[in-house]
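User: Sequence in, structure out. Go.
Assistant: Echoing your sequence, followed by the structure tokens.
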Amino acid sequence: MDETLVTPPRGTGGPIVKLPVLIAFVVCAAVLALATFGGGLFYRVLVAPQFLLAHIVLEGLSIVVAYAVFAIGWYGYKQNRNTQDLYIAFIFLIVGAIDFAHTMSYQGMPDFITPNTVSKASTLWIAARLFAALSLLIAAFVPSDFKAWWMRPRPLLAAALVTAAGIIGVIVFFEPYLPPMFIPGQGQTPLKVGLEYGVIAMLAAAIFAFGKYSKRERSSVDLLQIALVISIFSELAFLLYESAFDTFNLLGHLFKVAAFYFILRALFVSSLQRPYSELIDAREELAGLVSETGELYEQADRQRERLERSFSQIGQALASSLEVRKTVGLVAELAAEMLGTEAALVAVPDPQLPVFNVVAGVGLAPEMKEIPMEDSLAGAAFRDKAPKWTGRIAEEEKLFKPELATGEVQSVLTAPLMFGDEVLGVLAVYAAHAHAFSREDAALLSTFAKQAAIAVDNARRYARERRIAQTFQRRLLPRLPELEEMDLAARYEPAFTTAEVGGDLYDALMLDTQRIALAIGDVSGKGLDAATIMASVQYMMRGFLFQGMQPGEVLASLHSALSKELDPNQFVTVFISILDVQTGDLAYANAGHPFPLLLTKTGCETMTGHNGGPVGTAGIGRRAEMEKRGEHWAISVERPYRTDRVVMKEPFGMIIYTDGLVEARRGDEFYGEERVLELCRQNKDKPSRELVDELFRSAQEFGEHGLTDDIAILVARWHPESMLD
């Protein structure tokens, strides 16, 4: 029986507001109460130069934090495709711009486009607060997986710029025609006060909406609600100020900076911290599963050694399958064949009903889908954890009568599928003639059922491991950027299905608006261990690239880091390139990896350049081992790694691949680089996706036993003429 982990959906159940939010409310209320009722102890009216300096500092901080929120949401979207975070990021891009205009328009600052007045600064302030409150309320209802075209980065960026410019322009140029928000000598106008209360109402509604309807992680919801609570108290402080330079005005700005900080933390948790935490958790769980599975296989070996020689072929057959459905089907077939019966089945208990569900069988009637737990030999064997049989079931009035495809059943033999002390289900065999089974047959089936239970449990555990492995692999494989100037396609295929992940990886990521990094790597070894190493390589490599390092510097940094972590027999080959899609400038560096193939108008050829040794502990001294496999490339162990450069003046393409492609084998013959070159020359004008699929198809057809090594292929075509359209 397969195991399923059921997790309650996020955002449902539990209190709408949790303890940290209530604590934030109490603290803010206490601070505001002290300022309100503390009399002259806390209330001050600062002189204009002092307040102006404090105002510039506090507003500057809030603007910086607002743009940090935008940056995290923008770059986090590339990793997790969280539309709600992206929407919140653009809210603060707009708010930051309006707050900048407010700061520049404040009384005492040089005129900002038009003469500065208190009402002008107040109008810009209330516009920013109204926009932020309404937009955050809407954000609570935006699904994180919303996929409309207008909720993508570029359309939102255009809308944000137009919105910010429109709000600022209307207030700056038409402020004399707008209702005043502040009248010197009188204070805030009733309209300004009413709008502040409207902001507070929308912020309170947003607190409720995020707690009730948002599907975010609870910790992220708490941070957003804390930010909204602090924003409410910021608005309350601004309702109380009488002078543009008094304590309440200053306190309102302090609350605002704190609120922006908690918004920043909320997006950091959902966009950056949670994905990396999930990756670390997956790696630790996979490591535990590998250890647990190893112990399980050792136990299965010891168990098979105790069986009679007649079980050797059966044991080999069961061990050959790790698919749950296929394994239980094989158990039923082998049981029927071993005892020479017409029919057999495997059944497992229903999690809700008092019946066994038939999950595999041979020779059964089509309607034979379940067996009652009560009044059946299957139920007795399950409860007593011992085999049960009868030679004339027709004479047993109260017992359940199974139905065969060939007619009535006379003899029934059932044994529990025991794994340790746990009963996974029952194995039953049926015969059409009476007294078909003996005590020896019962002992034989019981022994076989115990061995079969090990295989079934292996398959069940493997199903869980496979789900985790597939999730892990999906997180490793990047989404390819979509660029008008580029035609990108990639594909990865592992060699072994026992883990469904391997040590090959490709990557393509935008470093800025016009530079794209294209990389590929290959970790020595196979399976989950190699995949976890490559995950570390991928994230280190991305970090170094975003720091502005050139390809050669990235490889040197990778080598320095990995040489301290990898085992002596492990190493990683890596090729990294950075292409400027506007100018055609291509920078690249190689660490012991096959050089990519270069597609041009005239044909296909292998790229050339400096090739350093693999990165990691085993990189130095591996030259002979790698060269013996390939006439394809030359290896140098010289350090440091060097960045080669070339400026492409016409459209070109790169085929970046791992050595599993050229090492597909037929007998003693490898597929080889020459076949890859010839195939690329024949298909050089095809789109990238078709070329990738053609390379895989050709390599798979050549290999007589399928893929014997992981293969990753990334094809990138650059079309500068598309910029002229």
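User: And one key feature?
Assistant: The chain has three domains: 19-179+187-269, 307-469, 477-724.
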